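Project standup — Tuesday

K.O.: blocked on the structure for the chain from last sprint. Re-posting the sequence here as requested.
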Amino acid sequence: MSGFIAFVVIFGLMIFVHEFGHFIAAKLSGVRVDEFGFGYPPRLVRLFTWRGTEVTLNALPLGGFVKMAEDDPTVPNSLASKGRLTRSLVYTSGALMNALLAVTLYSTIFMIGAPTPVQGPGAGIYAISPGSPAEEVGLLPGDTILAVNGEAIDSASEAAALIKARRGEIIELIVRREGQVLPPIYVTPRVNPPENEGALGVALDLPLERVKYPIWQAVPLGAEAAWNTMRGMWYGLQSALRKEASFQITGPIGIYQKTVEVAKTGLERLIEFTAFLSLNLFLINLLPLPALDGGRLVFVLLEWVRGGRRIPPEREGLVHAIGMIVLIALMLVVAVVDFQRYFG
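H.V.: unblocked you, prediction finished:
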């Protein structure tokens, strides 16, 4: 799959699932939904009408959108006219669908077979740096190096030492992939690799074997993988706020570049990457910032704290409008930074 097609599919799937969550929650709660669109306008065609909602097909294939009566409590069956529980459910449903998507994708990986560390001879390849010698000769995450220059490998440290000792020279690797031993691969380790990369550009550890799980085991494992990923994101954010780690924001340009890189490594890594991005969208949307779903939840919480007295809709709308302007400005800044990083 080409990088561009992969980006469109991944980005579109995440946004579509998110908006579909809002749509289903709104319909089940009796909220008036005027339109549910596949893709973004301009509209191409109205597909059909379902329970008073127009379902449309639009020109830009990046997810979808929900058009509902939302902010005015005087409008019959608007979201604003519903109770706090209903509004909270509709606001969180999009993010929850992104979390569910991630669990589904991780579970799929476990069902089709996930490379699993095992005890034994060899050195498993867990990651490959873009543009590295390993990538250039077609090595993939999940491969296991069995021998270097005819010398059998007992551990990852032994493989790393042999590769390092032959920097600048052509070496022969014997590699196992998907249970099959490949023809010899010839590669030249770098003499001066980039910082934090080895001579070959691989991360080595225990050998890997593909293990498939039945669905009743894959789903709990998928949920556990999603939970561990979210914990890692949260700890990473805390470390960045404490200035113990660098804080980096990327936008569509950066995501596109990363998608192109991951698409080269195979479908399994692409599925895993999609799950990771979907969890990012889950967490970002629940941040208590104006214009985001989490920001709207803040106003529901304030209403509860104020004993049921709501912030006037026009004031809430103004806050979200300002938040949207700031958000768009931030996205433009991130886009410029990404462009300079990748194309400057």
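K.O.: great, moving the ticket to review. The first helix runs from residue 3 to 28. Residues 138 and 185 are 9 Å apart (CA to CA).
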